[in-house]
Every structure is written in C-alpha cells, then in structure tokens.
Amino acid sequence: MEDEYRKVRAKKREDLIMAGVDPYPSSFDRSHALDKAIKLKVGTKKVRLCGRLMMIRDIGKICFAQVQDESGRMQIVFNQNEIDREQYKFFIKNFDLGDFIGVEGEIFTTKTGEKSLLVKKFEMLAKALLPLPDKWHGIQDEEEKLRKRYLDILLNPEVKDLVYKRSMFWQSIREFLLKDGFIEVETPVFETTPGGADARPFITHHNAMDMDVYLRISMGELWQKRLMVAGLEKVFEIGRQFRNEGMSTEHLQDYTQMEFYMAYKDFRYGMKMAEKMYKYVIKKTFGTLQFTIKDHKVDFSKKWEVYDYRETVLKMTGIDVTQASEKEIETKLKELKINYDKNGFNITRGIDNLWKFCRKKITGPGFLINTPVVLEPLAKRVPDRPDVVERFQIIIAGSEIGKGFSELNDPIDQAGRFAGQQALRDAGDEEAQFNDTDYVEAMEHGMPPTFGFGVSERLFAFLMDRPVRECQIFPLMRPKNKE
Questions:
Q1: Which CATH code is given to the segment(s) 153-304+364-477?
Q2: Hey, which of 45, 57, 185, 265 has its CA 20 to 30 A from 32?
C-alpha cells in the first residue's frame, strides 16, 4: 500500500516540475511562528506562515487545513472568494498530508470562533512522497517507533517533549558547572589504552597510523586528571562514550556522560556539591523534585541518606565482604538465586554482584560510601581504613546513578593497583582496567588533591521513568535486513 501512495505522490511531483513549479524551493520568508501568529489581532494582513500540512478538509468552495511547525498548529482556510478557482484546484490536486507549505494571508475568525489564516497566496515548500501514519493510531510497533523516531517525535507530543527535556538536562548541568568556575574541555575519543572504568571497550583500526585503537570507556577521566597535573583546577566534559557490553533497560553501549574534576577538594565536599547539582538540574528540567521511579517514590528535596557498603550488604545478606572468601560469596550468590557471569569470576565480581542484589531494595536518594578498595582502583584509601576508599555513589530507585571520589594521586599506589587490575585481565576478567603507564608517569610529576565525579544519561532516563534506550533521540538499531 505504501508503494502505491508513493507512486501517486511521485507523479504529482513530476506534474509540478512539468508545470514549472519547484517542489523543493530553498527557503521561505515567514513572518511568524505559529504560536505567535495565533495571538495576532484579527485583521492583521500579510502574515506569512509555513509548516507541514496535518489536516485537509475540502467542502467545495472552501477548504480547511491545519499546518504544523515546531511551535504548534494553526488552521488555514482556502476560500474561492479570496483565491481564484484555478489556484484552489491547484491546491486540492497537488497538496497532500505531510507536504510542507508556505502561505500568506490575513488573520480572521471562523464562524465556529477559531482564529485562522485566510490564505491569499501559497506555495509548495517540500513534497512528501510517503504518507504520515494515521494520526489516531500513530506507529504501534515499539521497534518501528525507535527506527522511525522522526515520525514518533512528529506525531507524539510526549516524545517531542522528551527531546526538549533532554536538551535542558544537559544544558542545566553545563550551566551549573560554568557558574561554579569550571571550564569545558574535550579529550580523545580514540585511545591506545582505554581507562577510567571497568568496562569492555570497542576496538577499531586507525588506517592512517596503521594501528588498532579503542573507543573511550570514560569521559576522558585519565586525560582530565592530566589537566590537574597541568595546573588547571576545575574542568568538565560532556560527550559520548562507548562500552562493548550487554544491553538492558539501564545500559547501552553508546551514550552521553558528564565528568568533572576539581583540585583541592575531596569526596565529602563532592557529596554536598553533587546533591546541590542534582537538585538544580532536576528542578530546572522537570519543575519538581518528587518522582515515582520503578515503583519507588523518590523525593530529592528530603535529607539524603548515607549507606555504608559493608554494613548494608551484611544486613541484607549476612555476608561480611571484608572477611568472606570467594567460595563463601559464590555460595551466597547461588543461595540468593543471583545470576552472575561465571567467566572470569573472582572475589571482586562476587562482592559487586552481592551489592547489586542489595541495591535494588534502596529507594534513596542517598550516598553509598566505604566501598572496598578492590572495586575502585582509582580512588584514595580512607586514611584509617585502608581496605576501603573515599568514594560515593548516588543511589536512586535501586540503582547507582552517579559516582564521585577523592582521586588517587599517589603514583606508587596507582601503579600497584593498575598491576592488580592487569592481573585480573590476564586471568580472564575483560572488564578489569588496563595498566596505563603513561598516566602513572604524568602523576609522577605531581597531581594535587582532586575530586572527580561522573553521571550519565541514565539519570535522565530514571527521571523520565523510561528505559534508557527510549530516552535517546536516535538509539542504535539493527538493520532490517539483518533482523
């Protein structure tokens, strides 16, 4: 059926060209967006509007139509008393729903009281060769909605609103940091040694240098900390990062992340700053601090709680992660029927899986602190508790949505931890961190006390209470011919 529609519309396109009409002119000089035009006084003349035709209703000598631009919709009226019969017939014959049209006319009110534009002149701005989905039903298949997101945005105000909110979300983070004296930087997307996270990277080949490189798995963490060595004190980056891992409602391989680093501050200061930033961004983006997320009622305005890693896991599972053996932890995972990856399994992964089981029961908002050092190779140890680090994770509705820590700046300690991570990789843990000797060398030149923090678009998805994939404007889709 779609092919038939296309043939009919393609014929109209050819007819327009044969009649000397360009179906795709370069521009149109409009006088008002539709949301402004509809507020004009009745009688205002030479109003020039443009947009997509969303409704056409021909009742003989009068035709009512609706045109839509980014700002909204407005009715336009073609009347044979105002334009001659041939022009009227030209419109009815050649224009279809979905076409872009430019019109000029006068503001008036119809008999039903609807403010409209009485058309005096019109022109084709873009001929649509394919019809729009039925306005009442839209696109029903969820995969098709994501594949043809442009149509879903066009027809679904909620999805369009998501695009605006997403923009406001990142802009308000940027605004918050710039007001606090941060500068925005850009760091490499291609790396010879990926760092800053426990994740499996994507690998690609750099033809000009004839070498394999990795797509970054963090927002330039080790590069931004090099800038601390260089003497900068407040830097941040917002950009795309890539992790070659599984997909879920909370995780994607290609997503937007923000990370910032500031000299002379620690994770305690960072907790206060992160809470302040979240409240600022959430209020500015959504206009409220109260949300229902995955059946959790989350109130960001209340006092944020603090959860101790060891105590929380001990309370919920009976396992002391600082004392238990790898075998005891694995036994508990099986007892609790927690699914876990047996490939490359070690005590580090076991502890992490136990915590994730506990995390799901916590509503938040709050901070998880005193994480075991084996889970965080880039954070400072707590001075009187060297088995844990000065790190916090923000817990919201059973998930970790943001992480910050006092950055490790002792090059000897860092080199030792990288070596430990490399041993895990050699033993089969593909998510363990790489040994970045260049970064250690930079740190040996002296790096000041530093606090770092990062949060991804998962926070936005949580606040929307939608899967993260649906909160991307154009998520990655498998080609149809490969499904």
A1: 3.30.930.10
A2: 57
